[in-house]
Write a structure and sequence with these properties.
Length: 172
Amino acid sequence: MKAYNARITATNIQNYFKQSGLTMEAFANLLDISKRWLEYVFSKKKNYEFDPNTVQKACDFFVADFRKFTTELQAVPADLRETLQKKHAKSPEYSKLLNDEPSLPFIVENILVNDDEFASTSGVEVKEIKRIIRKYYPKIELTNLSKTLQESEHIHYWPHPTKKKTNVYKVK
C-alpha cells in the first residue's frame, strides 16, 4: 500500500478545484478553512499540508477515493463541473455552489478558449472579451479579467499597436 503524500494530495485537490469552477473563497468555505490558508497550501513555494479531515471533505465533494487521491496523481475529468452538478443535485450545500457562476479562471480556460467567436479572432481587446463572456453569464462581474487572461496558459497577449495601456488577446 502506498503512503500518504502531502504534495500529491495538494496537487490533486488543486487540479480538481480548478476544474470545478468554484471560486477560491467558496472552496475554502466548503473545506471549512480560510481562503488565505488555501492559497498558501496551493503555493508550490510553501510547505503546508491539508489535514486528513480537510482531504476527506475534498474527496467527498469531488466524489473521489481517499486512498487514490492521497497517493497518486489523478486525471481530472474535463467535464468535472457538470458531473459534480449532477451528483450533488440533491445536496443544497453543494448544489448552490455548483450552480453559481463559475470562477473567472474557469470561464477563461473552459468557455472563452472554446468559444468560436473568440477562437476565430486574430486578437481582441478586453471589452470584446467581456461581451463574449456575457453571452454565457450576463450578470457576471468581470473584475481582474485582464490579469486572469494574462495568467492563462491558453491565452496569448501583446500591447495594442495604437492604444496605450491596452492589450490584445487571442487563443494560443
